[in-house]
Amino acid sequence: MCDVNLLLLDPAEVADDGTAVLTDRRAEHLRAVLQVAPGRTLQAGLVDGPIGKAEVLEVRDDSVRVRAVCNDPPPTTSDMLLLAIPRPKSLLRMLELAATLGFAEIVLFRSWRVDKSHLESQAMDLALQRHHLRLGLEQARRTTMPRVRSYLRFKPFVEDELPLLALPTQRFCAHPSATDSTASIALSPSSPFAVAVGPEGGLLPYEVDHLARAGFLPVRMSQHPLRSESALAAMHAQLDLLRARAR
User: Fold this and answer.
1) What pLDDT does 110 receive?
2) pTM of this prediction?
3) Does domain 80-245 have CATH number 1.10.10.10?
4) What is the homologous superfamily of the domain 7-72 according to CATH?
């Protein structure tokens, strides 16, 4: 019997014989929620590595010992997300969602509507961000940790840094008043895309224009504005469907 989510292991915690002793939240989840016993088989994977299965060998009050065999290639993607830094709690949720959706790289940037306090929040801590990215990977049975980078000034970012990034050819900017809709887009099959999502209230026309000059086509997804989290999920779902249909 295998479980829906993925037991994600760090390569450094796995011994040469494939065993690992878990003492953190994963062990607690295995004991309290899944109520595992020796002999139970779990979906497993290594961070930035292959996927496979792990057998529960021993369950104690403070730890769970497993043996992992991970030889299958993980799901891969080259999609990129450009995200205007939202409120701290939203940021952590959106990072988790982005990892679940399979974005390989996440670029955080400050737009005019991003409050300065967001830049100084705990949510900008790389360790905390990585924790939430990991939760997203576990949910989606992915192992590739998205790369996150931050740019705190819009104009230097869009004029100096953005042209240097290895962006996919297909680029889109979520914008509720855009002339084009996602329904009018023709995507190349199996090709990665980059998506820019603004803050609550949307990007300013000046910001949309600058992104358009960098090849980001402004597109709308519905007749009504969406919250940033909803816009991210809807935009990815629509583009991924169009990409799948093009095959």
Assistant:
1) 96
2) 0.92
3) no
4) Hypothetical PUA domain-like; domain 1 (2.40.240.20)
